[in-house]
Write a structure and sequence with these properties.
InterPro entries: HET (IPR010730). This is Heterokaryon incompatibility domain-containing protein. Pfam families: HET (PF06985). It comes from Scleroderma citrinum Foug A. By secondary structure, the protein is of the alpha/beta class. It folds into 2 domains: 142 residues, no CATH class; 89 residues, no CATH class. It has a 5-stranded mixed sheet. Strand 1, helix 1 and strand 2 form a beta-alpha-beta unit. It is globular and about 55 Å long. The N and C termini lie far apart (36 Å).
Length: 242
């Protein structure tokens, strides 16, 4: 990827692919960009090497985008300001986009995140929605506005933001946190929850942050398992105020 070439990047859930991509290209033209990066088109998941490289590079790609289009496919009109368990009954009262593990880094990394509803109407941007996003995600406004590098939250706090998020593959509970924690490691699908153990070991080797051992105290945790390593990001629930 050429850092000198401005591009937009799409953050979405995997549904209605062709129509969504075509419409996002139209938005790119309106915003006078020339390039759009979409994971479903730009990553060959048949290649384990390419997939591993992509996952390890994903945060950087989002961080360096000129704009990120966050497509909220189940939002009918304006951005929801209040929890609505009737309309969003399958996603804890908020749009489904906020339940996905991958979209956490896709929200934090880019400087410019534009939200769109299911009709591709603009419904706000990250900077104007910081306090609502705090209510939904637990991520402080200072992180949303200035990014991770300017604020240096502790490891436990970062992982806590992913505690309630969902993944199709259990390994992605760990892999989706790599960029947020500034860690690179190989992918090994099939290792299950060991992936999160491996992530924690990489963090211990790369950082002096002792808060990585502060898990197990929150209401969402499954308690101590006899190991210093947590089994899942849910174990860090309640660590968001560290």
């Amino acid at each position: 990827y050429d850092e000198t070439v401005p591009y937009t990047i799409l953050s979405h859930q995997w549904a209605e692919q062709e129509e969504k991509i075509l419409t996002s290209c139209e938005q790119v033209e309106k915003d006078e960009f020339k390039w759009l990066w979409v994971d479903t088109c730009c990553i060959d998941k048949r290649s384990s090497t390419e997939l591993s490289e992509a996952i390890n590079s994903m945060y950087w790609w989002y961080e360096n985008s000129g704009a990120c289009y966050a497509y909220l496919h189940n939002v009918p009109s304006s951005f929801p300001r209040l929890n609505d368990k009737i309309w969003y009954h399958n996603s804890k009262g908020w749009p489904e986009w906020f339940l996905c593990g991958w979209t956490l880094q896709e929200m934090i990394a880019p400087r410019n995140v534009q939200f769109f509803n299911r009709c591709w109407e603009s419904i706000g941007n990250k900077k104007m929605l910081t306090h609502t996003l705090l209510c939904i995600t637990g991520v402080p406004p200072c992180i949303l506005v200035d990014g991770l590098s300017s604020n240096h939250p502790c490891v436990a706090q970062i992982i806590s933001w992913a505690a309630d998020r969902m993944m199709t593959r259990v390994e992605d509970r760990a892999y989706s946190l790599l960029g947020l924690l500034d860690i690179n490691m190989p992918m090994l699908y099939g290792e299950g929850r060991k992936a999160f153990h491996h992530l924690q070991l990489e963090i211990v080797c790369a950082s002096n942050d002792q808060n990585i051992f502060a898990w197990g105290c929150g209401a969402g945790s499954d308690g101590r398992s006899g190991s210093v390593l947590a089994n899942d990001p849910r174990c860090f629930w309640g660590c968001d105020n560290m």
